[in-house]
Amino acid sequence: MAYNSIVLVKQVPDTKAVTGKAMNDDGTVNRAALPAIFNPEDLNALELALEIKERYGGTVTVVTMGLPSACRVLRAALCRGADRGVLVTDRRAAASDTLATSYILSCAVKHIGDYDLVLCGRQAIDGDTAQVGPQIAEKLELPQITYVEELHSIEDGVMTAKRNVGNGWEKVQVKLPALLTVMNTANTPRPAGGRLMMQYKKARSLSELEQDGGSAADAEKLKAKGLLIDQWDLDDLKADLQWCGRDGSPTKVHRIQSVVLTATEQKEVEPTDDGLRGMVHELISDHTIG
Amino acid sequence: MANFYSDNDDIRFLFRHYKMAELAELMEGDFSDSETHAWAPASAADAVENYESLLEIVGEASGNYIAPRAEGVDLEGNTLNADGTVTYAEGTQANLKCLAQAQVMGFTLPHRYGGLNCPNLLYTMSNEIVSRADAALMNIYGLQGIAETINAFASEEIKQQYLPGFAEGELTGAMVLTEPDAGSDLQAVKLRAYQDEKGDWYLHGVKRFITNGCGEVLLVLARSEPDRSGGLGLSLFVCDRGPTVKVRRLENKLGIHGSPTCELFFNHTPCQLIGERQRGLVTYVMSLMNGARVGIAAQSLGIAEAAFRVARDYAASRKQFGVAIEAFPSVRDLLIGMKVELEAARSLTYETCWVVDHENYVLRRSAEDNLDAAEKKELKQQEKRLKRLSGMLTPMSKYYASEMCNSVAYDAIQVLGGSGYMKDYAVERHARDARITSIYEGTSQLQVVAAVRGVCNGTAEKYLLEKEEFAYPAEYADLVALLKKGREELVEAVAFVKAQPGTEYMDLMGRKLVDAAIMLIVGHLFLQQSLTSPHWNGAFCEPAVVAESSDNESPATSSYEDMQVHKRIVGRRYISQNASRVTMLCVQVVSGDRSSMTDYDAVVGPVPEA
Lengths: 290, 610
Prior knowledge:
Strand order of the largest sheet of chain A: 9-8-7-10-6-1-4-5-12-11
Number of helices of chain B: 22
CATH superfamily of the largest domain in chain B: Butyryl-CoA Dehydrogenase, subunit A, domain 3
Largest interface: A-B, 27 and 29 residues
Strand content of chain B: 5-15%
Strand content of chain A: 15-25%
Shape of chain B: globular
Helix content of chain A: 25-40%
Number of domains of chain A: 1
CATH topology of the largest domain in chain B: Butyryl-CoA Dehydrogenase, subunit A, domain 3
CATH class of the largest domain in chain B: Mainly Alpha
CATH architecture of chain A: 3-Layer(aba) Sandwich
Radius of gyration of chain A: 22 Å
Oligomer: heterodimer
Helix content of chain B: 55-70%
Largest sheet of chain B: 7 strands, mixed
Structural class of chain A: alpha/beta
């Protein structure tokens, strides 16, 4: 039996390539100074979806929300074997927090309709909240498995998977449709395929095409070749605007601090059982751990 | 974690130095494949962009996935099963899957078989990148010449049967040539090929030292004419590795542990003839071998690159007597010598590929039947010139790159000292892997025999004279003068050799002549690299277009202009230092010293009795 997957992906600033210019004076992220990349764990989610497609058949649709430039991650997904890319872009979606984002993405998933699985990376490396996946499951009233490390099987619409619970693993079953959030330990994402790259590097969304001065005829040509990336705005999704963008975002950033951690004192701990016990107690009592 | 293409300034520089668009036009013709194959490029610019993205894909796969598995592959090796099949090391299996997903196993095959239709120069660059990550894996990735041989010489039916599987990475192959008594001397091959009453072909006999002999598709050189000895009694066959082919033994080797070296027994194995009878060795295998030789040059470059990087990092961080050891003159001299030789071998190898790509194009064109007499004549002339050139440059590259690789790997251990001798660092593996490169696909001695013909028949002189016609600026006058002087010395030495009876003296002095010719050719290549404007305007330091790896620890940082300055410095050093070597080599040649022949028994002594 074939299973259709929707993978939700995000373009993020590469927080591993942080330089002195990475933060603006007001404490916000200077996105221009950081290369934009495919959120690493979203690649694991995509890989799992592609493996499911190879094992059971079905399709893989990749959705991202963001500026038209976020199409880069959709192209990267198409170059790895995804069947379809969808860009959700709308100025009214700007400044969405995780709640608003999960609302908009849940509308996009509903708009796509025919699906058995929604896959997300565990979390994005810019916000590190790990909230969007679970909130989407909530809104779509889907059962979810978070922190997935291994897919055992899907039989008659029931999936068995292993999830990481921090100090061990759980083997759980879920009836599809369901949502999964996937860990970086789940698999090794594949590289882009040579032929796929040569084909899909030319895929464009309408807004990108417009930016490059393309015409409606160009769009038709791309569409005929299967290279037009679907582009939806909030109206297409029939989204309720009060749940989108700034209005739909209860998270208010109170203050951003630039914290530079420096060690001002040091302490030597004897490498004995007593020494270690003392250190652990001290860390517990000042709430560093525990 | 790294991308082995984008962190390599030299390959990125050379990608821009060569006219990739010209190669794209040779490969794609009128670009009409783009109408029938979704991935085929629509223009030269489109193709060149693809080329660089392909290198990025191979670079990412190599840096992020293949290199981290190399140590495990080396330790684990392959396993011979009781049923005569072979199981690759776990890392090798994962790597092959990764390369299949990257869709790069049909790198040079035409689009219609699912291939990428790339020029040899690009394939060679990719081969080097894979080899830097895992030299043993290159022995499978780099065997794409098998599919190329099928594409060049087999019937359409055989092509349809095998080529799509190669392009998908579902099939791997082996060149099944060597036998216990037929190593360098392939004319002595005995394995029997015979036909039954229906005319179907079968193979029977033993082959030895077969790289990836456990592959699914075997290209077998066999004696189809039992009454005919020598090369003209041999034909080339293709067969599947079915139940009638057994791997009898896996060799226990010094290096390239991930590459299975098999002894094969063919027990009346059904097979198909490739092309025509009796052309197996003289035409098909020679063509296959030439491609494979460039492949080994690329493998050598990759191993040397890997070894050099470990040595350089170590020398910069290891402190003795209170300073980093790279501050010491002797260590500095070692490292700079390694780097210059590595770039020299790369220049020669890539230049060879440039010539081979043009030769392949002319051969393809000549085979077309819509040519008029004038075109035919023109193509014939070009073919003759390019054949002579590639016939000289190919063995030169294989010889020079593999010897360089051995010396760089040896010196890398030297830089690390005691640590380098231990298994804790990769350099000991690189040195073990390096050792085979100057042996297989024709030993260095045999490469010299092939290359010296080109040096002595005027090909080298003509080529050097062409290079001298380049519009060098005045600031290079001293260097160009050294190169001209060297060429004159070489011509004189060649004249001396040709005046000797027979070919014995030429073969005795072969290495000296070939070394001198290579030094002069590479001198020109370095200078011209420092002067040519980039032929591709893709950004030099932009992050990868399709590779999405986030943690590129050491991205390339130099600009094209920085690299030109670098090449000027490298070229000046290379030419100045080698000018006196060229003189020395030529003096030795014209000395007429035959003592290796005449004094052999007196010096080496009698063979000890067992």
